[in-house]
Amino acid sequence: MKIDITHIAKLANLTLSKEEKERFSKQLDDTLTTIQQLNEVNTDNIEITSQVTGLENVLDDDIPQPSLQQKDALANAKSTKNGLFVVKAILEE
Questions:
Q1: Distances (CA, A) of 76 to 6, 30, 69, 71, 79
Q2: Which helix (H) or strand (E) segment is 75 a member of?
Q3: Based on C-alpha coordinates, what's the Rg of the chain?
Q4: Residue 75: inside a domain
Q5: In a domain, 56, yes or no
Q6: Can you name the residues that pair with 80 across neighbouring β-strands?
Q7: What's this model's pTM, rounded to 2 decimal places?
Q8: Helical ranges in 1-93 per DSSP H
Q9: What is the pLDDT of residue 47?
Q10: Predicted pLDDT at 48
Q11: What are the 10-residue block averages of pLDDT along the chain, 93 residues in total?
């Protein structure tokens, strides 16, 4: 199977070296080959399952209750200003 790894890298906004392109092309080809082999397995008599452990979600009842007071919520904050948390900026303007 011929894979256009340059096109895939461009879609993912990745810059790859020649060696990386060769390595990733081989890895992707191996992955697609394995998936093709799995597609050939006869599953006609297999029951559809979404999970096999029998586990179920355990949820608490959603009971409304009073929230923390603002001063309590901010009590352990490293830095506050005007009643709000102060955090370092993660985005540049």
A1: 50, 51, 13, 10, 9
A2: none
A3: 26
A4: no
A5: no
A6: 85
A7: 0.47
A8: 5-11, 18-39, 70-73
A9: 86
A10: 85
A11: 84 94 92 94 88 84 93 94 92 76
Which tokens hold the place of 64? Answer: 């409304």
Coil, helix or strand at residue 14: coil
Q: Which domain holds residue 11?
A: 5-39
Is position 66 within any domain? no
Residue 26, pLDDT score: 92
pLDDT for 58: 85
Alpha-carbon distance 6 to 50, whole Å?
36
**44/50 Cα distance (integer angstroms):** 16
Q: What is the amino acid identity at position 4?
A: D
84: β partners = 81
Chain centroid to Cα 32, Å, comes to: 21
- Amino acid at site 66: P
Token readout for 48 is 């559809």
Domain count, the chain: 1
* CA distance linking residue 67 with residue 58, whole number of Å: 23
68 found inside a domain: no
